[in-house]
Specification:
By secondary structure, the protein is α/β, with parallel strands linked by helices. It is built from twelve helices and 15 strands. Helix 3 crosses helix 4 and helix 5 packs across helix 6.
Amino acid sequence: MSAPVVDVWGPVAPGARSSFPPAPEPHDEWALAGGAAWVYYSPLNRRQLIRPVILSDGFSSGSSNLDQLWHGLEENGDYRFISELHATGRDVIILGYHDRTASITDNADTAIECIRRATAERVGNAKLTVGGFSMGGLVTRYALARMEQDPTLADHETSLYFSYDTPHQGAWFPIALQAFTHFATDNWGDTPAIGPVLRQFSGLLNSPAAKQMARWHIEKADATPEEASERTAFMRALDEVGGWPRNLRKIGVANGVDTGSGNGIKAGATAVKCGGDTLTDTWLKPQAQGEAEVARLQQTGAGPVSVRTSGLPDIDGAPGGLFSVPSPEGDTGSFGLAGLLMGLLGNTVDPDVITTSCFIPTVSAVGAGDIDDRKALYQPITPDSSALDSFACAGRNEGHTAMTEELGSWLVNEITATG
């Protein structure tokens, strides 16, 4: 199983891997306003920046971790992406952020500074390749488009933009999971040990970046799912700079299939259920179409809270990149995370847990349709339906930002072919 480049829940997940083997010492490190960039020259270029490729980090908790990024890009057990880029004479710049939950437009300022630094330090006139993983693809998409539209900013001198399982049309955080996280935080957020963990997750789901990415969001367990005002404002800002960068080639990959085949998760099935010291007959279900009850939340000794939705598609089972699949490294998936938190709250969790679900629908990752359109979610994707000039999809629905030979080699070949 290939490790993800971007781990959605990050180090705040209980039991998550807390450290990674150290990345090689970068040849250079750039301190940027709002982040940092780590530069690894190709061995072919004799410690000179000649053909820069900027790889942006994505959404997770806290600040970017070079060791984890290197692990996902290079030591993932499937494809050594950085080594393959180096073999083509490309210099790799890994772009990280001080706060990966900050507004996408704020982190885009950091990306713009990184692009300008790369063009200033580059030897020769080779064009840049710029893109990112998960939310990093949105950060760099907006940054490049803004550089084209804002006359006060320099030319980005970029010939290729790429995205890797990026939520161009929105991401899906299951409403049942959002509701449970907020419910647990409201009731046990001040409890020693587990309280800080719950507050971190609730805060992560209510962060600016999460609200901008999520197609449907709730701030409290009893709220109505809707597009957050932060997302509306971000989409307006993206439109104001043209939606996409224009003066370059745009490509992308999806960790989901393009055939329309779902991941096998059945709408309305019980994903996770528990009972015990703090919760009674509490369960979460994958999203179903139409009028649906997706969660029942009950604090022991209190009345139940029913979480209902209306008009949403059965998106948990849609083709696309999955929340991190559980692994020995501690990844918990989506419903698996809820099960873990239930157990930490002193409850017995039923063993038959559906741990994961769709996070970035394929149709979103390749910009080929709206994720609130059930037909678009489950129909085959054709090249002419995408906003990208070219794209590749995985042969199976796999973990979000998993670096595989299938997708990594396609991306390296496209970068090389661009010149």
